[in-house]
Mitochondrial inner membrane protease subunit 2
Amino acid sequence: MAPARALPAPLVVHGRRRQLRRRRKYCKLCYLKGSSMVPTIQAQGDVGLLDRRCLAGYDFSRGDVVVFRLSTDHGMKMVQRMIALPGDWIQIPEKRDIRQVPSGHCWVEGDNAGNSWDSRHYGPVRAFSLTIILSRFSSICSVSFLNKNW
């Protein structure tokens, strides 16, 4: 009887790496910090669970808390609440301006309007750059879901 052959180590490591890549493909933990989303997200920081599957056809709705990269600064990730979808009309009180959200874009604003840098300043956000936040963790014992669909 021939001895059993073990798989070479690189295949096992590669398999583990691939498995980890698959997990990161679906969801990811990230540190959320800043005052624009207070009281939903604490200014000193919370940990959020991001659903990355929504990049492939998630049906966003008004009120969803989303993460996105600004087109002007690709390194900066922002966390805001979705206010308007493509085709919706919005009014900007500070400018007394009424505008329509263009196709393929959405309008986002922070919950703490007085201390938020959002679509009122940089305009509509491209919808394909959004990731939804499923939940926030203030501590290991406290979990709250941010979006009504979950």
